[in-house]
Amino acid sequence: MIYASLLNAHKRREKQLAVLIDPDKTNRQAIIQLCELAGQGGVSYFLWGGSLVNEIQAEYYLSLLRAHTQLPIILFPGSIYQLSAQADALLFLSMISGRNPELLIGQHVLAAPRIKRMKLEVIATSYLYIDGGRPSSVGYMSNTQPIPADKPEIARATALAGKYLGHKIVYLDAGSGALNPVSPEMIAAVRHETEDLPLIIGGGIRTPAQAEQAFTAGADCIVVGNSLEEDPQLLPLLAEVVKGITVP
Ligand code: 1GP
């Protein structure tokens, strides 16, 4: 069970790293290389999804991932066309930073019967899009505004609302390829308000130092995509951070 793994790591204060595969931005060879590097340790999950991915790409790329990694595969869908029974779990994202009803409940209603048939593990997720310093695909495609980067109190209140709605994890995302990752101040504010929930941070993490900052501020799991597509050799360095970090 993926949620049990996230929750156990959170309780034990163990840190986790997830590699995001976005089929719009990668290719077969690059995925195989990332699978090999991830197999050397320090990586807990593959996340899979993107803004434009369709069902044919979904099945092709998920088969490829399945064939080259033993790690759990979690769907991080940009749309209902990215559901697949080949994955282990689904982040059932409610974009509570925005005010687009389709991403709060509309798409969920369409997806729910299909998800049930697929027997995926469903993880109710508060998804908060945070301003990462430049327009992002998630902002454009979702037609929502990000939470301003210097307003941790808004992120904190939003995450708390998500917790009261019964969501099981919180995901703060500065958007794919963000100029600025989510700040340590904002991570700490959300961590403080949702102490019992696993906290995932993604968007614009490019260096081991940024990964360490996010963990130290309270992230349980970081998600890295773009910078690994640019330089796969960053993966072992991030894995070292995950293995070495000790947070009181
Ligand atoms: C984006 O959180 C993910 O939704 C990861 O972002 O691709 O910038 O690492 P990057």
Structure report:
The protein is an alpha/beta fold. The chain has a single domain (2-241), classed as TIM Barrel (Alpha-Beta Barrel), CATH 3.20.20. Helix content is 44%, strand content 17%. The protein has ten helices and eight strands. The protein has helices at residues 2-12, 28-38, 55-68, 101-118, 137-142, 152-164, 184-193, 208-217, 226-230, 234-244; strands at residues 16-21, 45-48, 73-75, 89-94, 121-129, 169-173, 199-202, 221-224. The protein has an eight-stranded parallel beta barrel with strand order 1-2-3-4-5-6-7-8, surrounded by eight helices. α7 links the parallel β6 and β7 (199-202). α8 (208-217) runs parallel beside α10. The relative contact order is 0.16.
Spell out the blueprint of helices and strands.
Elements: H1 2-12, E1 16-21, H2 28-38, E2 45-48, H3 55-68, E3 73-75, E4 89-94, H4 101-118, E5 121-129, H5 137-142, H6 152-164, E6 169-173, H7 184-193, E7 199-202, H8 208-217, E8 221-224, H9 226-230, H10 234-244
Parallel strand pairs: 1-2, 1-8, 2-3, 3-4, 4-5, 5-6, 6-7, 7-8
Helix pairs in contact: 2-3, 6-7, 7-8, 8-10
Bound molecules: SN-glycerol-1-phosphate.
Brief account:
The chain has 248 residues and is an alpha/beta fold.
Number of domains: 1
CATH superfamily: FMN-linked oxidoreductases
First-last Cα distance? 27 Å
Strand element count? 8
Shape summary: globular
Low-pLDDT windows of residues: none
Tally of contiguous helical segments: 10
Structural features:
248 residues; binds SN-glycerol-1-phosphate; 10 helices; eight-stranded parallel beta barrel; TIM Barrel
